[in-house]
Amino acid sequence: MSTEESGYSIYRKLVSQLMNGEEQLPSLPMITMEIRRALADPNATTGSLARVISKDPALSATLVKHASSARLRGTPPPRSLEEVIRQLGMLEVDRITMVHSIKSLFPLHSPAHKKLFLDTWHRLARRAAISAVLGRLLGHVSGEHVLLATILSEVGAMAILSAFKAADQVPATELYNRLCREYGKSLGVVVLKKWAVDQSYIEVVRGAGLWGESPGPGIGLVDLVNLGLYHAIRENGPTAQLPPIVELAAYRKLLPPQNALDPSGNGLALVASQRVEIQRMESLLH
């Protein structure tokens, strides 16, 4: 067995232990669970919810950032956390809370762990931003819904990092990507079931990257996530082995003028025309 294969088998064993329940899977923070319970309470008010959210200053600041970014031009910025909640709405607050929690969830045991996580997060943020902007423009699914779905689609890849606890247990990028390809989806499904998220997010995990498949007759959550993934891969590696965009099941659901291609013929003109908005959305995730 080569040194590389031997190293991979060691990492593979660690991830297998995580999959088999021999190691603790990541859990949502208690404050996140408390906020989600408050959001699910039909008797909850913006005041009671604001009191719960205020226990997490970092989340409060993130919500203010989103509300300020999303507000209509000419309208005054929100002056309190209650106004932020009213402006965003309960569903958006829930989704932003989840994204915020996920980013801070996974333990990073060394600078090498941190680098691997941040590299993964930055790529994911780009994908999520593209998908979210497409969701808003196509009008089928809210941008925030798509944003969270994209982040959750890679929760398995991020959870893999939690299997490596020692400072010297950090796989090289190539080995980490290989582990993600082998375990990312199945581990992601396990984690999301543990978190009791909506089934639609679990279906996104299963359908991400399956270019020829698309559930339902219209543009759905999986389609938007896959379109974002496709464009992000193209941006990151123009020579990546991808099918022509016109062969994607998600693309075939688009109607003119939404299906117009950019000058290269490799992506949607819609994405090319929204670079500034995509960058703005991406910045909210960093």
From TrEMBL:
InterPro entries: HDOD, RNase_Y/CdgJ. SUPFAM superfamilies: HD-domain/PDEase-like (SSF109604). It comes from the Bacteria. It holds the Pfam family HDOD. This is HDOD domain-containing protein. Residues 25-211 form the HDOD domain. PANTHER family: PTHR33525, RIBONUCLEASE Y (PTHR33525:SF3).
